[in-house]
Amino acid sequence: MKQGFLWGGAVAAHQVEGAYNADGKGLSTADVMTGGSRQKAREITDGVVEGKYYPNHEGIRFYEHYKEDIRLFAEMGFRCFRTSIAWSRIFPQGDEEIPNEEGLRFYDSLFAELHKYKIEPVVTLSHFEIPYGLVKKYGGWRSREMIGCFTRFASTVMERYKDQVTYWLTFNEINNQMIVSNNLYAFTNSGILFQEGEDREKTVYQAAHYQFVASALAVKCGHKINPHFQIGCMVAASPIYPYSCNPDDILLAQRKDRQFNLFFADVHARGHYPSYIQKEWDRRGYALDITKEDRKALAEGCVDYIGFSYYLSGVMSADATMEKLGNDLAASPDTVENPFLETTPWGWTVDPKGLRYVLNQYYERYELPLFVVENGFGYEDVLENGQVHDKNRIEFLESHIREMEKAVEEDGVDVIGYTVWGCIDPVSFTTGEMRKRYGFIYVDKMDDGSGTYARIKKDSFYWYQDIIRSNGKK
Ligand code: BGP
């Protein structure tokens, strides 16, 4: 990897911090989601309901433990650490005029602690934690009002941390909300709860439009605050493969890949809507609220790099008789099984070559630097005699790093960094579980919230330390 390559790890505020109502923090969307499992969806409640269990309220108590945790990241040799700023710590209801100083102070200390060890913070502005007040007041990103609330938040934190943070990301996995078969993604991405009978895709396209504008305005304003800022978008890159060489499969996969993945990066990177999406909207009779000023904002706020998460790939077949998987993975319940790939116990395909594929796909399309800001292996680790031998996680990550290396060295792709998701066991986003662990560091917390919250280094901790020390070679 090139000099200065950003090796590190990633989390999101709501999945680790806890302290959900400390120091003036308001509720966020993550605070009204109960614990679930692969079999049982998380419930989204109307406010916090007494007697229900909300795993994000405690997270892994990073809010109290961050100094100890950062020391461990430093021991692994992290060059960067990706986290998000909890919007509702800064603007508790989301639309105040004045930020909450105590919330700002927490991130002052967090970033100072990172710099103490020369760890570069990489900061997501909105990572599934919209102030709940905005959901109640505006219906989340259904409303144009959200653009102003978000840009106030973005400019406040960019101004405050202009000398501490260089790398920013606007909206986490902005394309997830295209999964409209349930409420999870529209709620976490946009604070939207679908109503009976509404055209869900239309709602999501409108919300995404407001977010594209908000993102572009944040990019423009960020560059004014500090011209050295590197501001990226963040998409979930789950490539969609055609099931066969039947041209019908090829065309279907292309259409779905654009709709679920590429469309979102296209707008962020090119600053305008691609013609294929306009045609799709025309066909469906969608007249979205998109103004001339919005289009101008998009054109003036193109991102500096493409940040993306990579976990899995999906397959599409035009053959209507083929059995569909019916889950949300790879963005659509219409995906079919890939006979060449294994899956994790949570049903996620394991496809390291898919990482090389998307790196090539995105680089060829945009010729912008790429940042793999999430890649990881969720698994039920076994803690025995104070040790965790997570051999399968090491194998998973090693194989992905090898493919990334090929993309760089053999294909010429410009990759600036790689952050392993959930470098310290976080609360799972989709299920709210602890048992779906990702970390190099085990956290003694169980699905019912019990545990000491002690931190224990897994075998992968030492493996990653070697990877970073040798700049990926091993
Ligand atoms: C991404 C999110 C993360 C994260 C990860 C793993 O979609 O950006 O927040 O949690 O996926 O997903 P999960 O926690 O559901 O296993």
Distance between the termini: 12 Å
Radius of gyration: 21 Å
Structure classification = alpha/beta
Strand order of the largest sheet: 1-2-3-4-5-7-9-10
Portion in strands: 5-15%
**Biggest β-sheet description:** 8 strands, parallel, barrel
Strand runs, count: 12
Give the averaged pLDDT, no decimals: 96
Name the ligand types: 6-O-phosphono-beta-D-galactopyranose
Order of H and E elements: EHHEHHEHHEHHEEHHHEEHEHEEEH
The low-confidence parts are none
Number of contiguous helices: 14
Helicity, as a percent range:
25-40%
State the shape.
Answer: globular
Which features does this protein show?
474 residues, eight-stranded parallel beta barrel, two-stranded parallel sheet, 39% helix, globular, binds 6-O-phosphono-beta-D-galactopyranose
